[in-house]
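Checked the freezer inventory, then went back to the computational side. Two predictions to log before the end of the day. The first one is the construct we discussed on Monday; recording sequence and tokens without edits.
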Amino acid sequence: MSFSRVTVIGAGTMGHGIAHVAALAGQQVRLFDLDPKAVERGLGAVRKNLDKGVEKGKLDAASRDEAWARLSGESDLARACEGADLVVEAVPERLELKQRLFASVAPLVSPDCVLATNTSSLSVAAIASVVPRPERLLGTHFFNPVHIMALLELVHHAGTDPAVLARVKAWGEGLGKECIVVRDSPGFATSRLGICLGMEAIRMLEEGVASAEDIDKAMVLGYRHPMGPLRLTDLVGLDVRLNIGEYLARELGNPAFNPPALLREKVERGELGQKSGQGFYTWSA
């Protein structure tokens, strides 16, 4: 049921996190990015997080070293995909980009290689439509930071092979994740609920209902959320949430998902959240 050779495409925040947990779970992992410097940064982030796990007593040094030895970086797509039995894509949230990527990957892997997209809201069926044997493709929506967050949202389209879904679910559980299974629908379960809450919180801030800190505190203390919706938006990225909000408003025809003017203005100013140092909060390096 498991996989032995995993290729992760995209060495950014989500990609290096997926590579981290797969290597720690015993798979040989190749982390790919077109930019060799991005590969280097991704591998460096994995090493830093592995070391931090040892420092905090959550991981022993031997397990860290074994995981590190199973991980390699690659900037040539054909070499990265060679021999893979699972390819996980973690590139930016643009449908055309993901489709082009899988159209390029499909000829490089065996017909039985399972393909997974880390999309948080896009149509999995539309992504699968560009590959031969689309029944082998499904959504694997991880959460940031991947090596800490327990949830893995598995998204199946109408044509997904149930055996592929079962195999990926077993793999996810082997990574230490709690898996939920969701039908392919705009925003799935997590983004659909989370974006709706986040957009309303931004509208409340825009209208002067309360400060960002007090809006977040209301959800943390009143509803026992681990983090408020505005701080979470900063961590995810205001640009990412803007794109998802526009997509869900269009696909679902629901104005609750329309991005408020405040969100658009912040993105235009480059205030993207933690990654830029400024969002609804100010972040230090």
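The second is the one RB wanted added to the comparison set:
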Amino acid sequence: MIAPADSETHARVIEFTNVGLRYGHGPEILKDLSFRIQPGSFHFLTGPSGSGKTSLLRLLLLSLKPSRGTVRMFDRDVGNLDQDALLDMRRHIGIVFQEFRLLEHLTTFENVALPLRVRGEPESVYRSNVSELLEWVGLGERMEALPALLSGGEKQRAAIARAVIGRPDILLADEPTGNVDPELSLRLVRLFAELNKLGTTIILATHELPLLDAFDFPRMALTDGRVVIDG
């Protein structure tokens, strides 16, 4: 149930070649990005504020197009895809935001199930999967609670569950521990690590040094618009 979606195994999930990004006529925010991310890997995305971490995540989410260069995902050049093909590819990518973005009028169960409802799947099909996933992230007793009654950590776990319920091949996380205490931050990254063991490729943006020191995952360091992968 919580394993990644069945899909073909590719030599490279993600490949950037000489990618640059600018907004309008401004200077390039990202410059000459060239890197490869192997399937099933886990990378921390680091860099000072304003270095372009969120912009890079938006490129990976396919919500932005590069100003130049080539982005390949699942062995396809995303620059050659039409809107329908891009939407189909996005279904293989999950995203976790720092600010949770739960819908306040929906219960925990309904928030997590929302991506499946949008796809048109009937509740009779997904109910057991959603319930099992909520048990797995420690929210089994909070399924019927509205977001206003959840703690910050519970909201973040619900947001993570919503991101993975569609079994993405790639999971992006934009400062997902920014609103919780250090102990819960470690627990949440351990949860991401468990998802990674199931085969999901994870890129987690963070500036928290204790997290970087606590886990031996390679780092993608953004500085002056360029990226260096260490480890």
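For RB: Confidence is low (pLDDT under 50) at residues 4-11. The CA atoms of residues 64 and 167 lie 22 Å apart. Let me know if you want it refolded.
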